[in-house]
C-alpha cells in the first residue's frame, strides 16, 4: 500500500507541520461571559494536537466583533491569558495552532455588544434571519454603516488582535473572510452598497480585506498569516452578484502579501473555484468542506491541495489522524452539543484505546 499523502510533513509559511491534516475553525461557545476561554478549552484543543495544524474557533478581535453568546475574544488581558493556556497545552503535545480572527459585523445583535450598540457593517442593510441570544431567537437588526474613519479603526483592531494572539503564544492568525461575517459583507455586492473607496467595484469591495490582511502581516509577518474564504457559501444571507470576479480579483491582489496560506472551503457550488484560485496563489493551499479521507488523499495526491481541512470529523474524533492511519471507524458528531455549555460533546469524545 502506498503511503498516504496525509502523513507527509508540510511547510505552511513559517510553520513546519508534521502532517497535512488541519483542524477546521469551529465555534464551540464554551467561553465565559467575558469572552475568556477556560481550562476545558485548553483540554479540547490539546486532545486534538496531533493535527498538523489547528485553526482555532472564530475569536472576536474587539468586543464589537462578537457574534454569538459565549464566544471568546482576544482583546482583554484575561482573554490573552486564557488563550495562552490553550497555546501552551497544544504546544506541550507538539502541535501547532493559529487563531482565527472573526468579526461578525451585522451578524451580531445589540444584546451581545457593548452598551447595546448596533452591529456594524459596510452598509445599513439588515441580514434576513434570526440570531440566538440569551433572550432566545431574535430578529437581526439594521446595522450601523461604518464611516471611513471607523473602518480604519476596525483595521487597527485586527492588527492589535494579531499582536495579542502572538503574545498568547499562537503560531499565527487566520482572517475569517467567509460565512457572511464582516469581511465577506464588504466583499459582497448584496451587503456592500457603499459609494466610497470601499464599495462599488470589485476592487473597492476587496479593499477592506486587503487592508486587514496587510495590518495582520505588518504585525505577524506574512509567514504567519492565512486567509479563509468560502465563495458562494451563502451562509448568513450573503449574496454577491459576480463571485468568480470577486474572488479571482481578491486572490490576485493578495499575491504581493506572500501569505502563509489560502484556506478555501467549498459547499456544493458548481463552479471550479480551486481551478480558478489555486493558480493565482503561491503559498500553501488548504482545502476544506465535506472532505472524507479518500477525497482528501485524492486532492493531496493530485497536487490540488497542500493540506486538507476537517471540521466535524475532528470535532468528534480527537485522534483523527491516528484513526485515518489505522483505518479505524469514526465517532459521529453530536449536533445537539456543538454550541452547548460544558464538557459533554466537547472533551468527552473517546480516542482509540
Ligand atoms: C460546530 C461548527 C462551528 C463552526 N464554526 C466556524 C468558525 O468559527 N469559523 C469558520 O471559519 N468556520 C466554522 N465552521 C465551518 C468549518 O470550519 C468547516 O468549514 C465546515 O465544518 C466544513 O467542514 P466539514 O465538512 O469537514 O465539517 C464551523 C463548523 C461547525 C461544524
UniProtKB/TrEMBL annotation:
- The NADH:flavin oxidoreductase/NADH oxidase N-terminal domain, residue ranges: 6-331
InterPro entries membership: Aldolase_TIM, OxRdtase_FMN_N, Oye-like
Q: Which Gene3D superfamilies match?
A: Aldolase class I
| Cofactor(s) required, per the database record | FMN
Supply the Pfam families for this chain: Oxidored_FMN
* GO terms of molecular function: FMN binding; oxidoreductase activity, acting on the CH-CH group of donors, NAD or NADP as acceptor
Q: Which UniProt keywords apply?
A: Oxidoreductase
Task: Name the family.
Answer: Belongs to the NADH:flavin oxidoreductase/NADH oxidase family.
State the name under which the record lists this protein: N-ethylmaleimide reductase NemA
- Name its species: Sphaerotilus natans subsp. natans DSM 6575
Amino acid at each position: 500500500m502506498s503511503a498516504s499523502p496525509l502523513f507527509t510533513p508540510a511547510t505552511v509559511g513559517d510553520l513546519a507541520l508534521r502532517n497535512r491534516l488541519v483542524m477546521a475553525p469551529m465555534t464551540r461557545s464554551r467561553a465565559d461571559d467575558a469572552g475568556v476561554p477556560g481550562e476545558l478549552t485548553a483540554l479540547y484543543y490539546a486532545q486534538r494536537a496531533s493535527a498538523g495544524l489547528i485553526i482555532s474557533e472564530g475569536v472576536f478581535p474587539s468586543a464589537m466583533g462578537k457574534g454569538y453568546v459565549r464566544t471568546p475574544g482576544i482583546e482583554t488581558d484575561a482573554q490573552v491569558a486564557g488563550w495562552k493556556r490553550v497555546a501552551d497545552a497544544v504546544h506541550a503535545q507538539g502541535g501547532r495552532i493559529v487563531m482565527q480572527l472573526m468579526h461578525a459585523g451585522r451578524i451580531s445583535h445589540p444584546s451581545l455588544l457593548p452598551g447595546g450598540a448596533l452591529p456594524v457593517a459596510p452598509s445599513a442593510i439588515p441580514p434576513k434571519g434570526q440570531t440566538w441570544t440569551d433572550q432566545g431567537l431574535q430578529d437581526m437588526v439594521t446595522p450601523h454603516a461604518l464611516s471611513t474613519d471607523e473602518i480604519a479603526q476596525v483595521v487597527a483592531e485586527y492588527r492589535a488582535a494579531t499582536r495579542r494572539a502572538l503574545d498568547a503564544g499562537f503560531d499565527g492568525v487566520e482572517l475569517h473572510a467567509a460565512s457572511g461575517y464582516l469581511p465577506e459583507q464588504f466583499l459582497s455586492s448584496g451587503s456592500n452598497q457603499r459609494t466610497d473607496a470601499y464599495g462599488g467595484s470589485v476592487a473597492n469591495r476587496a479593499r477592506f480585506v486587503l487592508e486587514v490582511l496587510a495590518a495582520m502581516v505588518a504585525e505577524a509577518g506574512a509567514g504567519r498569516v492565512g486567509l479563509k474564504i468560502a465563495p458562494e457559501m451563502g451562509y448568513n444571507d450573503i449574496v454577491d452578484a459576480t463571485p468568480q470576479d470577486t474572488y479571482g480579483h481578491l486572490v490576485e491582489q493578495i499575491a504581493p502579501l506572500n501569505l502563509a496560506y489560502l484556506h478555501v472551503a467549498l459547499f456544493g457550488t458548481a463552479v471550479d473555484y480551486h481551478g480558478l484560485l489555486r493558480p493565482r496563489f503561491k503559498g500553501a493551499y488548504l482545502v476544506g468542506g465535506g472532505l472524507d479521507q479518500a477525497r482528501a488523499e485524492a486532492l493531496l495526491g493530485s497536487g490540488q491541495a497542500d493540506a486538507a481541512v476537517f471540521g466535524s470529523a475532528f470535532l468528534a474524533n480527537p485522534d483523527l489522524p491516528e484513526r485515518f492511519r489505522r483505518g479505524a471507524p469514526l465517532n459521529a458528531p453530536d449536533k445537539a452539543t456543538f454550541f452547548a455549555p460544558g464538557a459533554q460533546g466537547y472533551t468527552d469524545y473517546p480516542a482509540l484505546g
